[in-house]
């Protein structure tokens, strides 16, 4: 069974602060790691998908790294803005053949204070 | 359409009643996934389809839950005889390949 953990569960930062969260997963049975940004009552929005060890992806002020050997990914937000307030979800796709389901972490709830 | 559409947004059912949720995937996407989020816990996989065929149903409760994806119709998730613990947000996602999944806004089911 693939277990995905995210930390911290919630986070309050001041506008302009930089912040980062962690997603950890078993390094065996790994195919891809996905990050989503989600606001309640809206559709989760895809941020990144990463598959290779050492992958780094960037989208504006948000970036992510992947370490498949030790089983973790970091999401970084530089210069947080109030509009970054959301829950950030990570999900793994396992390599088990015949399935492409995601295994989700419980998310990190970010609140950026103006 | 360009977005995954889910209806209704909210659904309230008395315990023991039936609940039916609908999902219209993005046009051209052949994979559909259903996830359940209870309270503020993680999204839990229920079932996936490749076109109208069940692809993976390992997450589906054996009793009371069923799902279909028929040609030219929205996909559906049906819960017979709902229980209090079925209260959750049900998300549908679709994908073109086996990679990135695009999510709908979810249907909030409240069982009273």
Summarize the structure.
With 114 residues, chain A is mainly beta.
Q: Calculate Rg of chain B over CA atoms.
A: 13 Å
What's the average pLDDT of chain B? Answer: 94
In DSSP terms (H or I, runs of 4 or more residues), the helix count of chain A works out at 0
pLDDT averaged residue by residue of chain A:
92
Distance between the termini of chain A: 41 Å
Computed structural class of chain B? mainly beta
Give a verbal description of the structure.
The complex is a heterodimer of chains A (114) and B (112). With 114 residues, chain A is mostly beta strands. Chain A contains no helices and 11 strands. In chain A, a hairpin with a 4-residue loop joins strand 7 and strand 8 (72-77). With 112 residues, chain B is mostly beta strands. Helix content of chain B is 0%, strand content 50%. In chain B, the strands form 2 sheets. In chain B, strands 2, 4, 5, 6, 9, 10 and 11 form a 7-stranded mixed sheet that branches. Chain B has a 4-stranded antiparallel sheet with strand order 1-3-8-7, with no helix packed on it. In chain B, strand 5 (43-50) and strand 6 form a beta hairpin. The chains are: A mainly beta (114), B mainly beta (112). Chain A binds chain B through residues 4, 32, 34, 36, 41-44, 46, 49, 89, 91, 98-107, and chain B through 3-4, 9, 31, 33, 35, 40-45, 48, 55-56, 58-59, 91, 95, 98-106.
List the helices and strands and how they pair.
The complex is a heterodimer of chains A (114) and B (112).
Chain A: E1 5-7, E2 10-14, E3 19-24, E4 30-38, E5 45-50, E6 56-59, E7 62-67, E8 72-77, E9 86-94, E10 103-104, E11 108-113
Parallel strand pairs in A: 2-11
Antiparallel strand pairs in A: 1-3, 3-8, 4-5, 4-9, 6-7, 7-8, 9-10, 9-11
Chain B: E1 5-7, E2 10-13, E3 19-24, E4 31-37, E5 43-50, E6 53-56, E7 65-68, E8 75-79, E9 88-95, E10 102-103, E11 107-111
